[in-house]
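Q: How would the structure tokens look for this protein?
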Amino acid sequence: MCILSYKSKFLASRQGNVYHDRDWCKSGERFAINFLEDNKVTLQPLLSDQFVSCMDSGSAILQASVGDKQKFELSLNANDDQLAFYNPYQKKYIVAKEDGTVRCDSSSRGTNAMFMGWRGGPKDVWVPREEGRDRKS
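A: Here is the predicted structure in token form.
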């Protein structure tokens, strides 16, 4: 899945960090959302065996193990077309910062914590889906 920030930039991972600074979404910008048994998810770059981690310092970095810092709850906005990643262990949201970095340091779900996703093609092609029903467009 390609993940687009409020600045219309795609998330990408490189050198152990997460950024939102790409105008394209190719294999290096794709992420897998892995659903876990406890209604949480992990976020994993497609070309990596590591997971996005919400660190005590507020950094969003990649780590190999899955623990509380790598588990996120998903929440949708009122229109069901934007998604936020909340880490209950740190009590923080993943946010896209003005400088192109991605951090896990916001206690509120503002505009910069909301993301959109695409499976491929132009930015307006994919309609998000929840198991069993179509989302509103």
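Confidence is low (pLDDT under 50) at residues 120-137.

The radius of gyration is 14 Å.

Upvote if useful.
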